[in-house]
Amino acid sequence: MKKDNVNVLSFTLCPALLSLTAIFLPLCESFNYSQALSQSFLYFESQRSGHLPYNQRVTWRHHSALTDGLEQGVDLVGGYYDAGDNVKFGLPMAFTITLLSWAVIEYGQQIDTAGEYAHALEAIKWGTDYFIKAHTQPNVLWVEVGDGDTDHYCWQRPEDMTTSRRAFKVDADNPGSDVAGETAAALAAASMVFRRTNPHYSQLLLHHAQQLFEFGDKYKGKYDESVGVAKGYYASVSGYKDELLWAAIWLYKATLKDKYLNYFLEKAHDFGGTTWAITEFSWDVKYAGIQAIASMFSMEEKKHEVVLKQYRSQAEHYLCACLNLNNVSNVERTPGGLLYTRQWNNMQYVATASFLLTLYSDHLLATHQKLLCQKGVVGPHEMFAFAKSQVDYILGSNPMGMSYLVGYGPNFPQRVHHRGASIESLKENKGFIGCTQGYDNWYGRVEPNPNVLIGALVGGPDIKDQFKDERPNYIQTEACTYNTAALVGVFARLHQSQAHTYHNETPLIASI
Ligand SMILES: *[C@@H]1O[C@H](CO)[C@@H](O)[C@H](O)[C@H]1NC(C)=O
Ligand SMILES: *[C@@H]1O[C@H](CO)[C@@H](O)[C@H](O)[C@H]1NC(C)=O
């Protein structure tokens, strides 16, 4: 279909958004969500650690960290760097894989239609292959390689790394129920993804997931008390109870075994699942995700109804907070309409909120329900329109006219806080670049990064929609794997709704 028609159709949808959001006019631009989706998967290739495969598309990266685990006699080669440094942090890595798997479970069809299904599976498997290696015994999980302090002392390409690659584990004497729970959730969710295409692998993932959950549940403790080096970077502030509920619900989804459901229902109160109303969903705090899953269950068994309703009321509190429809405790917004949780890497919360809102809007649509908030009633189309407004802000409908998804559109951050991207690639510059040499010659440059970190979602603007594209400004210009991971499903779903519009079918975003 011709582009003109596309634009006309997109414009007709825009007024629908005005009712709910403080709207910025360029919102009525039409975005290419399929392109954003494709770019997302390139980002995961940029973050790969280990031996890169022949079909690696991001060619400014090369093999790195090929002796990870060697000091401890374990093979920990692979996995992902979390953000702009070269540390492998298990907790956010696992959350990233849970999010990616969830996106494929819910929107696999749409990802496939956009031609990205194989890339999605590769992105997940790069993580799950690593978790299998890292889970060396039923009660042993390696949860970090490298450490933030020594790593941050240097500014080096991962390919040149000279920093400590010491690995850290949790076990029965040094427990880590949060990281074990999150890794169990990731493996359980991924087992659902691979069930059809790779049943043997799926079974293997499930086996590890079940063992990790048992380990986390039996030996309770916060991983950052066992692995002190994680504390300054990915401290488990919310504790491990949310991750144990999260693991249980994912294991129930993957196995339909009553024991996991019963755990989830019996611990609901004591573990905070039905008592904590929280307005963020992140690598640390899983409650909103747990509550959302619980409230989307189609429960034949009425005996669970009471607890599930309690879960649902907390999920609704979260969703209404994002929609600014609670009497009190809503998520703040910038003047440009972006959800605002906190200064440092705010986009992670925007991305996870957009994902949960999108999922829930489809749930409302399928079950012919509306969301009842204290300040109003919201239908599925309106809820989805709000999620779209957040994604459109990310892609360029914002006061800075900037796409916060790197590589998308004409104007995006040029100085992403990222070691590999900010230094000439090994392909261009074969010389070794040392620890402080990177700081001296590359970090402080005002020029754009030599390598574009396509598909990365950076931390984003401040509460006044302002953004400084400067490399040392890590609060705004650093990207993390879990930022982009939360958007994958939303991009796919938006692409589908756009495709419907293109073909002149009833738009999924109808007028409100
Ligand atoms: C969206 O981007 C993809 C490239 O990623 C391109 O093939 C496609 O034609 C674009 N769609 C529109 C409507 O411009
Ligand atoms: C919310 O505010 C409305 C209007 O002020 C009031 O009628 C309602 O009772 C409040 N709901 C709660 C749960 O406080």
Feature tags:
single chain; 512 residues; mainly alpha; Glycosyltransferase; three-stranded antiparallel β-sheet; two-stranded antiparallel sheet; 7 strands; disordered N terminus; disordered C terminus; binds 2-acetamido-2-deoxy-beta-D-glucopyranose; Glyco_hydro_9_His_AS; cellulase activity
In short:
This protein is mostly helical and 512 residues long. It has 20 helices and seven strands.
Task: Write a structural description.
The chain has a 3-stranded antiparallel β-sheet with strand order 1-2-3. The protein has one domain: Glycosyltransferase (Alpha/alpha barrel), CATH 1.50.10.10. Helix 4 (90-113) runs parallel beside helix 20 (481-502) and helix 15 (347-367) crosses helix 20 (481-502). The protein has 20 helices and 7 strands. With 512 residues, the protein is mainly α. A hairpin with a 2-residue loop joins strand 6 and strand 7 (376-378). Helices cover 49% and strands 4% of the residues.
